[in-house]
Amino acid sequence: MIVNTAEALALQHIVERLDKFKPRQRWWRRWVKRSAVAIIIRELNDHLEILMIKRADREGDPWSGHMAFPGGRMDRGDITGLRTAMRETEEETGIYLDKAGHCIGRLSDIVSRPHSGRQPMVVTPYVFRLHTVVSIEANHEVAEAVWIPMSYLMDPVQRETMELKRGRFAMTLPCYNYGKRRIWGMSLRMLDELLSLV
Description:
This is CoA pyrophosphatase. InterPro entries: CoAse, NUDIX_hydrolase_dom. Pfam families: NUDIX. It comes from Zhongshania aquimaris. By secondary structure, this protein is of the alpha+beta class. It has one domain (6-155, 184-195): Alpha-Beta Complex (Nucleoside Triphosphate Pyrophosphohydrolase). It is built from five helices and eleven strands. It has helices spanning 6-20, 81-93, 97-100, 150-153, 185-195; strands spanning 33-44, 47-55, 67-68, 71-73, 101-106, 110-112, 121-130, 142-149, 159-166, 169-178, 181-183. The strands form two sheets. Strands 1, 2, 3, 4, 5, 6, 7 and 8 form an eight-stranded mixed beta sheet that branches. A three-stranded antiparallel beta sheet has the order 9-10-11. The radius of gyration is 17 Å and the shape is globular. 27% of the residues are buried.
């Protein structure tokens, strides 16, 4: 049973604020490529953890080797983005979210710049709370799955910067370095919006 810690209160705040939260939705998302991801929160003893995966190295994959949330592209058979997030999570991690947890809300759509072609992709994050213990059975798309303590992400001391070079240009961007795992980009934007609800 979870004790009344700051993180337990943080989860309560997230649940309450997600219930009232009005995420930014791209009205034109129905006409472009779409993806959805699952941000999964679990309560373990007296603290909270968020599941992230490291994508397997694959030639031609622009997100190869990146830290991310389980998820992927919407199939024609997916009625909603929520269904996409649940299906992709099951495929990538073996977690059946409809049995092991429930969705407590969604965050704002994020537009991904296209790596090929001109059409952007809209990514929708859904937040889940687990209510049972799960085991992870990663598929070939996942190099590693790791539970990251929310206390780590909420600690400003852990926030760092990185330099990203694109051709002649260099940009300084925020990131976390959790061991040898770097969290940045779209995943960090999603985390920042989630943590802003605490």
